[in-house]
Structure formats: C-alpha cells, structure tokens
Specification:
By secondary structure, this protein is mostly helical. The protein is built from 12 helices and 3 strands. Strands 1-2-3 form a 3-stranded antiparallel β-sheet, with helices on one face. Helix 3 (about 35-55) packs across helix 4 (about 60-75) and helix 8 (about 105-125) runs antiparallel to helix 9. It is flat. It starts with a helix and ends with a helix. Its main location: cytoplasm.
Length: about 220
C-alpha cells in the first residue's frame, strides 16, 4: 500500500518502506506487528516532547512541565493526532478489528502514532524524529493550556485550602455497592475546620474522591 498522503503529512519520506508498513500493522493482522515499535516510540515521544517543552517554557516548574507533557502525550491526545493523520485508513488490521471498528479506536490510533515515531527514528535517526514531532505538535505547543488547569481536583482543593491557611481535607468511603467487577464507590470530602461535606460516587475510590474534591472546590469558589 502506498502511504504517500501520510508521509506528506508527517513531512518525512521513508527510505525503507517496510519499516513504515510494520508500524502500521496491528497485531490482529500479522505476527510482524507494531507492538515493539510502540515501546520505542513511547520513550522517544516522552523525551523529545519533554525537551521541546523545556526550551519553550523556560519559566515553568518541573511540576508544570510534567503536567504539560502528560497532557500532550496521553492516549486521548495521541488518538486525536492519529485521527488527523487518518491512520485508520492506513493501518493493516485483522478482519475482526475491521468489523468492530478498530480503525477508529483511540487505543489503536494512539499506539500507531507511537509506532510511527519509532519508525521515523529507525529509518532516519534522532534529528529527523525530533523534527517530525516538532511539526506534528506545533499547533499544540503554540496553544499550551495553563498548567494550573491540568492539576487534578484533589491537588487544586489542597492548594486552595493551604492558601487560606486551612487544614487538609479529609476523605472517607461511605459505602461500596455492586458486584466485585462492577463496584460503585460512594465517598465524602470533609473540611475539618468547618464540617462542610461533599459526597460523590465513581467506579473507583480515586475517581469518586476526585469528583468530591471538585464539588468542594465549586462550593468554595462559586
């Protein structure tokens, strides 16, 4: 299969087309699939995006840089990139994945993006990979969110209370419902100095606590 449109979008022409073909081959299609390349691409992605952020955000703290990088390289973000590159039209998928819509599944698209990064590295080296990623991430790097907005709700609530010289919030599980494979956790978030309480639920204790913390933030910052 010719991948002319894809290579034009990447801004990189492969010397060895077989490397690109392997990067676009899901395990459902062939034993010569892209899983090992995903591993390599993941490492390159984290390192290069980290370096791009380091130079672009000279005043950002380590924590801010970590949050920005996480927002750029998480599965959802990579899946958007994979969709923009129309990887679903380029990939080699088994018949089962094709029938179940695997060509638009976020995890498959994100994995293929990582494999593509590895393919450019194996074919052209580090500088070509860095240049390709700088192109692919250019718009996102030019429109970075406020790092504070990327903090999770529990962290933001704790910082809000610390700024007011108030004690840390307390979390507790009220009850757990449902069978082991489908549990619902009901938790509370309590402010010990005012006895204010917010309750929330979720499929895990972590998710429920984050939701309760967000409700408490909404209460404190209406």
């Amino acid at each position: 299969m010719s991948h002319r449109r894809l290579t034009q979008m990447l801004g990189y022409e492969f010397r060895d087309p077989e490397i690109l073909e392997r990067a676009l081959t899901h395990r459902s299609a062939s034993s010569g699939h892209n899983e090992r390349m995903e591993f390599l691409g993941d490492g390159l992605l984290n390192g290069i995006v980290g370096e791009l952020l380091f130079h672009r955000c000279p005043k950002a703290t380590e924590g801010d840089l970590s949050r920005l990088r996480a927002s750029l390289v998480r599965e959802e973000s990579l899946a958007v990139i994979g969709s923009a590159l129309k990887l679903g039209d380029e990939m080699n998928l088994g018949s089962g994945e094709l029938k179940s819509g695997g060509f638009r599944r976020a995890s498959i698209l994100a994995d293929a993006v990582e494999a593509l990064i590895a393919a450019v590295y194996l074919d052209g080296g580090f500088e070509q990979t860095r240049a390709m990623l700088a192109r692919v991430f250019e718009d996102r790097l030019n429109n970075l969110p406020d790092p504070a907005s990327l903090k999770d709700a529990k962290t933001r609530l704790q910082e809000l209370l610390q700024a007011q010289a108030r004690p840390r919030p307390e979390y507790g599980v009220e009850r757990v419902e449902g069978p082991p494979h489908k549990q619902r956790f009901h938790v509370h978030c309590r402010l010990p100095d005012s006895d204010e309480i917010e309750q929330a639920e979720g499929s895990s204790r972590r998710i429920a606590e984050q939701r309760a913390a967000q409700l408490m933030i909404d209460r404190l910052e209406p």
